[in-house]
Amino acid sequence: MAEQLQQSMEFSRPIYVGEWRVYDIGAETLNSLFKEDIINEPSNKIKNKKPDALIVNSDKEIVVYVESKKDSEFSSKSKLDKAIKQELYVAKMIHAKIYIVRDSNMTVWINPKTGNEILDTHGNPIRREIRPKSEGEELEKLIKKILVSISENNDKLLKEETLDPSDLAKKVHQKLYVAKGISPSTALYTFVELFLFKYLSDLNLLKGIYSFEHLYSLYDLEGTDPLDVLKDYLSNNGAREQMKTLFVEGS
To answer: What is the Cα–Cα distance from 87 to 191, expressed in whole angstroms?
Structure first.
């Protein structure tokens, strides 16, 4: 009961933060959330676990898994480490992209892939509280920065840099012109389309057979003709057509 009282009053059921839904769970188990069609089916090993809050995307994947603790469990470094590790395996098994442990005074952001704290660009642990109602836009921006930064090999936010794509565009055009003799405008369109294809795949908006990674993997199949890979991309059920569905015509 004490832990539940410490949960932020900012949560309700649900709050929308950008494209995600924020749920204050309370006494609900992962299995009951699955039965209510809120999340994807959890492993039997963790189906009875009760997260304190979740941030879920439109595919019912868990973006953020939140555990609330008593203040006494954060009173020392050793206790904090123990509190973090206590449910870390659950966050991993549920494939949460971010794991958060908090008490009434501190919010700790964890990379489930490494078990380490997520750091800002200066190398300091992120301590931002989750306030979806009053700071929804800021929360969304932070989560997106984290999602494009952390990996199995990185716990630190990547620095935002303004890049001039002119040199890259020129190099791409030169290669396309030499190979096919196409015009500069066509080369630019090709460059933009390829860039967009890779970018949408990295954001997980193009998944599975529609992703850049899937298409690229086709080249590794024995006997694959590069022309067949292109045909796959351009087909009526291919990645290019799927990419079009993500944008409103005329926008």
So the answer is: 44
Query: What does the pLDDT look like over 106-140, one tens digit per residue?
Result: 999 999 999 999 999 999 999 999 988 889 889 99
* DSSP symbols for 26-87: TT--HHHHHHTTSSPPPPTTTTT---SEEEE-TTS-EEEEEEE--GGGGSSHHHHHHHHHHT
Residues 128-149 as b or e (16 or more Cβ within 10 Å = b): eebbbeebbeebbebbebbeeb
Dihedral sign, Cα of residue 87, residue 92, residue 146, residue 140:
negative
Sign of the dihedral through C-alpha 117, 118, 123, 126: negative
Q: Which helix (H) or strand (E) holds 108?
A: strand 107-111
Using pLDDT thresholds of 50, 70 and 90, give the confidence band for residue 187: low
- DSSP 8-state symbol, 121: T
Q: State the Rg of the chain over Cα.
A: 22
Please report the pLDDT score of residue 193 as a whole number: 85
pLDDT surpasses 60 at 222: yes
Residue 78: partners with Cβ closer than 8 Å, 6 or more residues away: none
How far apart are the C-alpha atoms of 24 and 55, rounded to whole Å?
9
Residues 64-73 pLDDT 10s: 999 999 989 9
Q: pTM of the entire structure? A: 0.64
Instruction: Give domain 2-147's CATH architecture.
Output: Alpha-Beta Complex (3.90)
The helix (run of H) or strand (run of E) holding residue 111 is: strand 107-111
Local structure of 21: helix, strand or coil: strand
Every domain of the chain with CATH number 3.90.1570 lies at 2-147
210: helix, coil or strand? helix
